[in-house]
Design brief:
single chain; alpha+beta; Arc Repressor Mutant, subunit A; 6 strands; 45% helix; 14% strand
């Protein structure tokens, strides 16, 4: 029986009808699979999507889905259901995850709220760096809407950032004259990061 590439969907009429309900044809699903399959050479947030029915039958077939390739949560869910359209009402099972924070992963439920977090995570990672966003989340920086208010950039160490702050905010030569040469940037940096700032692997954040 003719099948859709990678989805292993037998092209029975009921399967074609289910695809149509989800906005797909067999050909458009083939193209969507090519578009949404995770590329192991990249580090985009991804989920491995199977179903509970298949899993309970000892069938682990599914697909690594690149979350960054979708415009909306509904598009993502529709695609996953279309991929498993051999089932009348597939109960999606997200069996593994990659490249996003562990606390957002749920085997049985990728809700819209979690989807929105990951979408923002992807957006911020593209603008800044994934390492910086990971550091913010590790720090407990949620919601992610605070990231850009808190992120101060990447610096070598606390003393390096202290030198930046002093250079931006103070004219030590005018204030201290020759004594400016003896200013203790290391001690000032220690004080800054004791109360007002946080650093992780060079990424600096301001407490909000």
């Amino acid at each position: 029986m003719k099948e859709i590439l990678k989805a292993n969907l037998p092209l029975r009429q009921e399967v074609i009808d289910r695809l149509e309900e989800l906005g797909y044809t067999p050909e458009s699903l083939r193209k969507a699979i090519e578009e949404h399959e995770a590329d192991y050479r990249e580090d985009n947030p991804s989920l491995y999507c199977g179903t509970y029915a298949k899993y309970n039958d000892g069938d682990l077939s599914g697909m690594w889905v690149d979350l960054s390739t979708f415009d909306s949560y509904d598009d993502f869910i529709n695609f996953c259901k279309a991929f498993h359209a051999d089932e009348y009402d597939p109960e999606l099972m997200f069996q593994d995850y990659e490249n996003f924070p562990r606390e957002w992963y749920c085997e049985s439920c990728m809700g819209e709220e979690t989807w929105d977090k990951i979408a923002e995570y992807i957006r911020l990672s593209e603008i800044h760096s994934k390492e910086a966003v990971d550091a913010f989340v590790e720090w407990g920086g949620e919601p992610l809407e605070h990231f850009e208010d808190c992120y101060c950039g990447e610096w070598e160490d606390e003393e390096d950032y202290a030198r930046h702050i002093v250079g931006e905010c103070y004219d030590l030569d005018r204030i201290m004259g020759n004594l400016a040469n003896f200013f203790d940037y290391a001690a000032y940096g220690c004080e800054l990061f004791m109360y007002d700032y946080y650093m992780d692997n060079g990424h600096v954040f301001r407490h909000w």
